Amino acid sequence: MKKLTALFLAGAMTLALAACGGGTTSSAGSAASGAASSGAASSGVVSEGAVSYEDLEPATLILADSAAKGAAGSVFDELVAEKAAEITGGQLTIETYINGELGADTDLLRQMQNGDIDMVGSQIAALVSFAPELAIFDLPMVFATVDGDTIDQVLNGDSQTRAALDKAFENANWHLLGFLQNATFRLTTANTDLKDLASFDGLQIRTMENTNHMAFWQAIGAEPTPMAWNEVYFALQSGNIGAEENAADTIVGANLFEVQDYLACTNHILYVNQLSMNKDSWESLDPAYQTALEEAVSQAIAEMRTQLVDIDTQNKELLVEKGMTLIEYDQNFFDEIMAIPAVQDLYKQIDTDTNGLASILQEELGVA
Predict the structure, then answer these.
(1) Domain 2-130+172-180+273-311 - what CATH class?
(2) Residue 158 contacts by C-beta under 8 Å, 6 or more apart in sequence?
(3) Residue among 119, 7, 13 nearest 63 (CA)
(4) Which CATH superfamily is domain 187-270+315-365 in?
(5) What is the pLDDT of residues 263-304, one digit of tens each?
(6) Is there a contact between 98 and 69 (Cβ–Cβ < 8 Å)?
């Protein structure tokens, strides 16, 4: 009944959005016709001979995301849908609703938890209120000096961290499918030359309304100011605040190079997207489709990771071309921050909040 309700709502919203220039993307159609000729998509699933998707009832899943069209998260969602269709010869269809068509992150996660939609892609911040263990991603700079392959092994491989996160998602009535990242990060823009730690003293910086994030900025001497995103450009332009933090593509998209002089690679938070599914929807899915979906996610992550690095590099270069000064730090900068008592206290607090998972993460990343 919930699925019928969700499909009805999704259809109604699609018609409404179409009327005002919006739209819904179904990736199964054209991709399915090429499945038989796609060796990469077929290997490991179709070619084993044990699976004949034509013998299964077709299945349709709803995937929602608040990410804008063209953002890394939405591209990832659509790629997963495309690959699932290719692998199953069009028998498994994933209908993607991006750009917040079905709601903002918290609302989408609640809908998935209740079974009203099947899958949600998102960044991590909104998940913490549902699954406290996800606060490990709030550990400041914990990923800053770690390469993408190592992070991928810890988040997507056979690790204690991944096992604990699987359990955390399960407790929230979700099933974790995977994390997309490649050691790209949120950066800091400012009108102050943030050449060293002392330069952050008194820096008025816009942050997300996240207590762990704000505690970090306070620990290094800055003055964090939560603010609605649509107010940030004008606050920077007027001088009401002097800095903000975001991924490079977001900084470019908001034209912040017009009102900010410096781009500092503080690498304080990992730029990562998750993809998960309602637990009951996952368990009711035919095992062959479960295998196909896992393979689709794995292939999409592998393909997207290179793109993430290119996107990050290209946008940093563009910001420099637009007149910003790029600031990069050596290991001493990160070591100095990690030695601050208030930062150490924050690590201890997050470790307590996550029942020791923060310590396990650090050990498996090799930064403990």
Answers:
(1) alpha beta
(2) none
(3) 119
(4) Bacterial extracellular solute-binding protein, family 7 (3.40.190.170)
(5) 999 999 999 999 999 999 999 999 999 999 999 999 999 999
(6) yes
Global pTM value:
0.80
| Residue 229 in this model has a pLDDT that exceeds 90 | no
Q: How is the chain split into domains, by residue range?
A: 2-130+172-180+273-311, 187-270+315-365
- What percent of the chain is modeled with pLDDT above 90? 76
Phi, psi (deg, nearest 5) at residue 206: -75, 135
| Nearest-angstrom CA–CA distance, 56 and 88 | 10
Strand stretches in 159-200, DSSP E: 174-180, 187-190
Vertex 269: Cα angle to 314 and 193 (nearest 5): 65
Q: Which two tokens stand for residue 15?
A: 């018609």
d(CA 194, CA 131): 34
Length of the chain in terms of residues written: 368
Q: Calculate the alpha carbon distances from 288 to 5, 46, 117, 154, 285 in Å.
A: 26, 10, 21, 26, 8
The reply to whether 2-130+172-180+273-311 and 187-270+315-365 are identical in fold is yes
